[in-house]
Structure formats: C-alpha cells, structure tokens
Amino acid sequence: MKRRDFMISAGAVAAGLTLAPRMAFAAPGTIDWFTSSDQNVLDFWTNVVKPKFEAANPGVTLNLVDGQDNAGLQAIAERAQAALGTNADPQVDIFEGFDARQPVGAREAGLWTDVTGLSNYSKINPLAIQLDGLPENLPYRGSQVLLAYDTTKLAAADVPKTWDELITWIKANPGQFIYNRPNKGGSGGNFVRRAIYAANGNDISKFKVDNFTAEAGAAALDPAWAILNDLAPSLFDGGAYTSGNTQSIQLLGQSAVTMIPAWSDQALAAIASGALPETTGLVQLSDLGFPGNFSRMTIPVNGVNHDLAMKLADFVLTEEIQTAVLTELGGFPGVSWDHIDPALREKFKDVIPDSIPVFPGGDWEKAINENWYRAVAPNVDPAS
Amino acid sequence: MTDRPVNDIVGTRRGSWHVGLLLVAAPVLLVFWLIIYPIISAIIRTVWLPTEGGGHSFSLETYLFFFSDRYSLNNLGITLWTTGVCAILLLLVCLPIALYLRFSNSRISAYVQGLAIFPMFVPSIILSYAFIRVLGPNGTVDLLLNSVGLPRIRSPYLTPWGPVIGLVWDHIPLTVLILLAGLGNVTNQSIEAARDVGARSWNVLWHIILPRISNSILVATSFSVLGIFSAFTLPYVLGPAAPEMMGPFMQRTFRELFDPQNAITQAVVAFLFCIVFGLFYVRSVAKNRKA
User: Fold this and answer.
1) Does residue B70 belong to the interface with chain A, where contact is any CB pair within 8 Å?
2) The overall pTM is greater than 0.95
3) Which residue range is the domain that position A133 belongs to?
4) pLDDT in tens, A183-208
5) Any idea which architecture B63-290 has in CATH?
6) Which residue, A103, A236, A348, B21, has fewest beta-carbon neighbours within 10 Å?
C-alpha cells in the first residue's frame, strides 16, 4: 500500500472511531452503567459484579462506563432529565456514586426511581438510611477515612487511638505525617473535618446541611484552622500538602512519611496491589472516627433497560456481592452486618464502624474549600 | 500607448479574490465562534453584574476584589514567577541542544534529537507521578545519592520548583524544534566566512547566529510562555497548596467554590497577560511576512 493511501485509510478509521460512540444507541439487554468513583471501584465492578450478574442473567450485558467525576455524571443525568416525557433514549440505565439530589430539580421532575420496593431493600443498614433518607437513593457500600501507617517505624501498640494522641504523635515526630488538600480528595478532606469536630467538642450534631451561616461558619471553623496551623510545622516538609489521595499513598509507599489519613477501601486496594507494603497498618480513632459516607446508586425512570437496572440494584444487595464489597473492595457493606457471614464479621471487627460521622456538604463544604486555602495552606504564622 | 500594470502580464484573473476569502471563511468563523465570542461574553459577564433588584449594572467589583486580595495577587505572582523562570531555563537548556543538533554531523546527534523530542509523547499526568518517583522524597535520586554516601536532596516536590522542573522538561521539544527551524536560516558559509577572518566561537554565536535567530527565540519564548502561564496538571500535582498557579486557582474557584464570576475574572486577568505575548508572536510573524 502506498504511504498516502495508508494515511488516508488510517485517518478514515480514526475519524470513524471517534464518531462511533456518538452514534451508538442503547441496546436492549445491555445495561448502561456510569460511575463517578475511582478506578478501584470500576475494577471491582469489572472483575466481580459484572461476571456474576451476567452469569446469573444469561443474555444480559453490563456496559461499565467511567463517568470521571460527579460533574461528569451530572451532565449525563441532565441528558436523562431532558429526555423525560419524550421518546428520546437517555442512553443510561443506572448511576453509581451519585445522589438523587442532583441535578437540581430532577427529583421533583420525577427523574429518579423510588427504590424502596426492591426485595432486598429491607436489608440495608439502618445507619445508611438514617444518613440519607431519600427513597430514590440506594446506599450499597460505605467507606470511611482511617489512618494508614508504616508498622516498621511505628509499632501497633504505640499507634495513636484518639485525636489528642494523634496530635501529640504528629508533633513528637515532625515531618512524618501528611494529609492532602481538603478539596482534592476525601482522605485529607475528612482529616480536616475531623479537626473541625475536635475544635467543636466532637459534637457532630452541630453541623447540618442547612445550618450554615457566615457567623456560625467563622465560629466553628476558625478554631479548627488554629489547630491545623499549629500542626503545620510538624507536617512533612514543614507544612506541605499533597494534591490527592493517591499522592499521599505514594509518599507512604516511598517511606517518606510514617502515617497518612486514607480511605479504607483505597488503603486495602493499595496493600493488595503492592502500592503499599504488607507491613502497612490501619487504625481508626476510637473517640470519634474520621468521617465517611455510603455510596449510592440512582436509577432514572426512563432508561431503556429500567427493569434490568432494578434487577441489578437488587442483585448488588445480595449477600454474595455485599461480602465481596468487604473482601474484594475493602469497603463496608451497605447491608446490615446480620446479613454478612459471621466469620467475616469477626475478622473485620476492628474496622466495622458502629457510627460513621458524616459531615454535611453544601455551604459547609464550600466554606472549608475556600477558607482552608486562605487560612492554613499559605503556612503563615498567625502570630506574626 | 498606455502603461499597463505588471499583473496583467502574469494574468491574474478578475474576481478570484473572493475564492480566497471563501477558503479562509470557515476557520475565521470558527475562531470567532469558539474564541473571540467567548472572550467578549466573558469580559461582559465580569463587568455587567446582576444587581439585587434582578437587573444588571456596570461594576468593576470582581476586578477590585482580585487586585485588592492578597491571596489572589500571590497566585498571580507565583504564576508570573514560574513563567519567567521557566522561559529563562528553557532557553538556557534548549539553545545548546539546538546548536548541537544544527552543527553536529555525528551519528549520536540523531539520538540526542530523539531524546529532546521524547517529552512530547509523555502525558503530563504520567510525568507528574514519575517526577514524584524520581525527584520526590526517597525517590530514585535520593537512592542513588545514598548509595554513594551523599546526603539526600531537599525534594522540589510540593515546592514552587516542582512545577518549574516539570514544565521545563515538558516544553523542551517545542522550543528545540522552533530554535532548530530558526537555525536553518544560518548558512554554513556565513559561519565559515566569519571563521576565516578569525572570529572565535563566542563571536560567531553573538554576532552571526543570535541575530539570525532572534525571531525564533521570540516565537519559542512566546509559545512556551503561553503554555506555561495556563498550565494545569503539573502545578496541580507537583506544586505547593498555596500560592497556587492561575490554572488550578481558576479551576478550584469555578468547580469547588461554585463562583463562576470570580473564576471568569481570574481568566480575564490571565488572558490579558497572555495577550501581550500573543502580540509579540503575531508581530514577529507579520515582520517575517514582509521580509
């Protein structure tokens, strides 16, 4: 083939490939699933849920799509909302890691399916329902931030177990702790939120999604910034902050620090993949745990494969998948612990939370994202 | 007998001018639609603010905030500092490479060229994590130093030097290629002539080579400056939490503080700085056309 012909045909193939996904239509029997979660969750679905579900339902395929992040899913949900009431195909059947409160107005417009009628719904951990309460949200897995540490440098017996012990330890071991910027990943974000709880007498009831005012914000957050500023000189490199969960794990893996806050599921996945050594220890604070949350699935009413999507949602709450959430993903099951094998319950009893503090989003989150950068990140001594 | 214009002899067809305009119409319209129009609409959105009564009025509030806010000014400052340091380092690194590639006839120069172009094929997110592995704390460099009994380096990771090193490495290919193209204008004869009258290498560089490629240096600098000013990934992953460069700062203001008004203001400020370098580039292209 002449070079020119080759270039032309290669160009045509490339152009065709870029156009192809745009022209795809939802196929019957193929469930279009979109996630906002990290790679470890997508891997879990690819390697565990998909083969099991497809084996149990011959002829059905799961099309797993990485929607990148919450904003990515929101755009797809907006497409589904726009298709409501028309015959247009939204090309999506189910969302993972989403919230039925988004996009604004979608819930009122009737975009989301009420999932309380699922046969396994009653198995869901009451804690998860109490935290959320929307009948359109299906909590199916949880994760919580905990401390990951290097057992070769710090014996399990000497690990801090309360917030005060943690602060004392960080100050006694300067340069050995780092957390990431609160808006760049939940591990650092929830470390900062734990500091906010600590500055407010560990009173989690003080923070609600609708009780933010400028005065309440300043009164509750300023003491937390004082704690974090006080801590800064004892952090890695005299007050450096990584830009994400993964980078913190990388620094712990390179033995540059001794302890980091980490998501339970990411830490377990990192240990399993070798990114963190076998000698990594995990511990949760006992006075009040680091905040965490349950991840939810939502199902639009107008998906072409709506019935199959409901079947999938029910399937995910079975003991088989929920056990895998614990053993394969390293998350907490979305169902009550009574629905998990007792042997496993015993094995994981150290990380089973009896309460997960959940810090509200909305205006509180915005205030944290803005003020941490202004008050803590520049490492300016407040006394000077 | 009257004098006729020369172009009659070459035979320019009448009326063909609009074919040319038609050919450029599509890209020009695209530029208007995708670039010029958003710029104008962004500027209007930052000065024509909604009032409490539901109407709109002219206000420079967001600009006053930006230029009176210490934090925003620090971010602008670090962006200008990073851009300036990167531009100087790029010239210092790339000019010798380009000179070597232009004047060397050895077989090694092909490999050097390959190495110099290589960063072009490495996505910056991969570069960032590789950087942490190599130059980060307890990274490869530390391990090598340690193995010969030397003390560890103070890692540039999470300091303003982190993005500088990453951005310089990332922009080497483009700068080398532009300088190399410029060096094509320097003929071997002119250099031999200078040598014949006894010019030293330094004199050849200063009086023969640099004047010929000053235009390319200007183009290479404006290109790298434009890229570095708006860089996102490398400053985001490798830089300190504060001050932030404008790229991450805009993204955070827009997506995490839900504050499009201020994010657009930051974008307009960044655009005003970039347009200066853009004009340098346009001017040098126009000058070239005339020559």
Assistant:
1) no
2) no
3) 3-142+293-347
4) 888 899 999 999 999 999 988 888 88
5) Orthogonal Bundle (1.10)
6) B21
